[in-house]
Amino acid sequence: MTSQTERPSVRAAPIDHQRIVGGLQGALQTKDQAVAIGQELAPQVDRIYLVGCGAPNRVMLTLEYWMAHAHTSFEVKRYFPAEFMTVTPRLDERTLVVLGSKSGTTPETVQAAEFLKDKPCLTLAVTGTEQAPLARASQRSLLMGETEQAHTGMFIVLQALIGSLLQARDGWPLLEPLLRSLDALPGVLVESAELNDRRAEQDARTYEHDRILYHLAGGPMFATAYVFGVCMLMEMQWMHSIPIEAAEWFHGPFEILDAQTPVVLLLGEDPSRPLVERALTFCQKYSARLMVYDTLDYPMTGVDPAIRPIVGPFVLQAALNRFAEHLSERHGHHLDTRRYMWVTEY
Ligand SMILES: N[C@@H]1[C@@H](O)[C@H](O)[C@@H](COP(=O)(O)O)O[C@@H]1O
């Protein structure tokens, strides 16, 4: 670790209201098209495969969770693109394959779309622009535009699509409050980042020298444990940072906990909350080095109460982004620095 005087000048990016809200306008406009495609495809499709790497795959995890919870009559399965091509699941004319990639250039995701070209199924890409290789290789696309906010943008578009499919096919009653709440989400991200900034800075000071962090979450909130733990701290800070499902905590992982072990616990308002609360009670007994982030602490202005559990993972993500920004400043390690990804052959 470099000392204060030698530390390279990396600064936590300020919270830029216009960049966040402006960066999500493309996704908000496209969500109406996503709803229309959902209504059109609902009677034509029986199986939905959700295919993406990294963060898009975890956005899809939240969709898969809510579709199971709604007792959907669709068969739904989520895949990593590389695995999707080796498993080659059933693909027929009543199969919809949704491929998500923020950049639209991730090789495995583009290869999966190419692989599907001579199959009878429907393909739908969710990505930035129509020039993206993924959009070119897919039959249809939902586009978010060029944006730094593609993570939440992908959620907005995919959740609108899935909400519409669920309403048309299974009579899901929450589409209208969902769409209203998605309109409010960009402002909520700014609100949540601002609300957490001071605490995030304090947490970054407290945990600056820790190189190992565990993240505990359940249900759809596991997406946030993964994106924060792996995409942000492992990939962007080179920390040993491990997300664990709360439902699995008592089946091995809890043996690692001692009084020095830092754990980030993420609590949402979805049905998995009691699983995380049980893990929290245990952690409080054996360690004082816990960071508890709870969506109940966030007002989510403009979000319908019934939709809070659905958007909760993205609200905590916005709050935790501040923690990553402040850690990057204290580590002198910019969030864009990679040693292998996009730099070497792999
Ligand atoms: N942290 C994310 C990864 O999770 C993701 O795999 C990669 C490619 O993502 P995409 O296919 O959305 O462009 O981008 C970032 O590095």
UniProtKB/TrEMBL annotation:
It comes from the Bacteria. InterPro entries: GlmS/FrlB_SIS, SIS_dom, SIS_dom_sf. It holds the Pfam family SIS. Residues 37-177 form the SIS domain. GO terms for molecular function: carbohydrate derivative binding; glutamine-fructose-6-phosphate transaminase (isomerizing) activity. Keywords: Membrane, Transmembrane, Transmembrane helix. Coiled coil: none annotated. The chain crosses the membrane at residues 212-234. One of its GO terms (biological process) is protein N-linked glycosylation. This is Fructoselysine 6-phosphate deglycase.
